[in-house]
């Protein structure tokens, strides 16, 4: 059984990287159903996803028309919604980041734009996924960990600076497009943690300065202009978040001891309160 499963991923990778568009399109369509079916019957391992993402990377590589590239970016990113659980989708996102970090330096200038577009669309869709589940702390943490380990680690020389900069450039833009005003300051800080850690620890001051400008400063400017809107929340969602806050106390330790005395539990009813808390918290951090 295991052998047939392994061959399925290899088969998809080959079809996704085909020279013929019809074959690639058919493979994308079938892959969506396959991901859903596998996720409901034991799930996909990280190794399985590595094979699939290799094929998806070269599926984009083979697409040479701008409008079709945009369409393909949307189709690939929408695969995140094929998983019945956020955990499966976030592992899929993690392997995507790992794949692009590995392949980045091999992308020529003529093909770079379409991969940058795909990365932007992937972040938009993963933020949409988190928004649909009301920004659960455990899920925000999984994304932050994936980003920190696979792209933003300051100590891994093999991780390309160009990829770091592109993600820094688009991160806040895509986050704000989804639903920034519904997030507590704690969750904003959690999603920024990979960049904060990079800025503090990076041996490359110019790169750290660019990340600071594109992520931290941009986020401060963005939250200061968010219009106040009621953050309606069901009692059930509130209870779920309370359980996460209790069970996930190490999150505050990850962010740092500076803001422990300023913990925000995400219960504010107005986005203006969230924005103010976030600005104070982030300024205090630095």
From TrEMBL:
Q: Where is this region: Disordered?
A: 228-275
GO BP term, pick one = rRNA processing
The subcellular location is: Nucleus
Record's Gene Ontology CC terms?
A: nucleus; preribosome, small subunit precursor
Principal location class = nucleus
The name on file for this protein is Ribosomal RNA processing protein 1 homolog
PANTHER family to which the protein is assigned, alphabetical = NNP-1 PROTEIN NOVEL NUCLEAR PROTEIN 1 NOP52 (PTHR13026), RIBOSOMAL RNA PROCESSING 1B (PTHR13026:SF0)
Q: What are the UniProt keywords, alphabetically?
A: Nucleus, rRNA processing
Acidic residues bias spans: 243-253, 262-272
Source species, domain of life: Eukaryota
Give the similarity note: Belongs to the RRP1 family.
What InterPro entries does UniProt report for this protein, alphabetically? RRP1
One Pfam assignment: Nop52
Q: Which organism is it from?
A: Plakobranchus ocellatus
Taxonomic lineage from the root? Eukaryota, Metazoa, Spiralia, Lophotrochozoa, Mollusca
């Amino acid at each position: 059984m295991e052998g047939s499963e392994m061959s399925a991923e290899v088969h998809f990778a080959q079809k996704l990287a085909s020279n013929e568009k019809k074959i690639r399109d058919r493979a994308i369509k079938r892959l969506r159903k396959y991901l859903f079916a596998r996720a409901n019957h034991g799930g996909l391992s990280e190794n399985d996803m590595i094979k699939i993402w290799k094929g998806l990377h070269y599926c984009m590589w083979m697409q040479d028309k701008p409008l079709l590239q945009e369409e393909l970016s949307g189709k690939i990113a929408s695969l995140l919604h094929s998983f019945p659980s956020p955990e499966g989708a976030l592992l899929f996102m993690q392997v995507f980041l790992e794949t692009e970090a590995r392949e980045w330096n091999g992308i020529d200038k003529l093909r770079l734009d379409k991969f940058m577009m795909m990365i932007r669309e992937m972040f938009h869709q993963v933020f949409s996924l988190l928004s649909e589940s009301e920004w659960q702390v455990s899920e925000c943490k999984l994304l932050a960990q994936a980003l920190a380990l696979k792209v933003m680690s300051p100590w891994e020389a093999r991780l390309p600076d160009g990829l770091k900069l592109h993600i820094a450039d688009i991160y806040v833009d895509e986050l704000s497009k989804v639903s920034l005003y519904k997030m507590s300051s704690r969750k904003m800080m959690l999603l920024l943690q990979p960049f904060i850690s990079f800025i503090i620890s990076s041996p490359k001051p110019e790169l750290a300065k660019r990340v600071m400008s594109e992520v931290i400063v941009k986020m401060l400017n963005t939250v200061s202009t968010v219009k106040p809107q009621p953050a309606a929340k069901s009692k059930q969602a509130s209870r779920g978040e309370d359980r996460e806050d209790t069970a996930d106390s190490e999150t505050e330790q990850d962010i740092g001891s500076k803001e422990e005395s300023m913990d925000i539990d995400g219960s504010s009813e107005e986005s203006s309160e969230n924005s103010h808390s976030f600005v104070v918290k982030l300024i205090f951090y630095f």
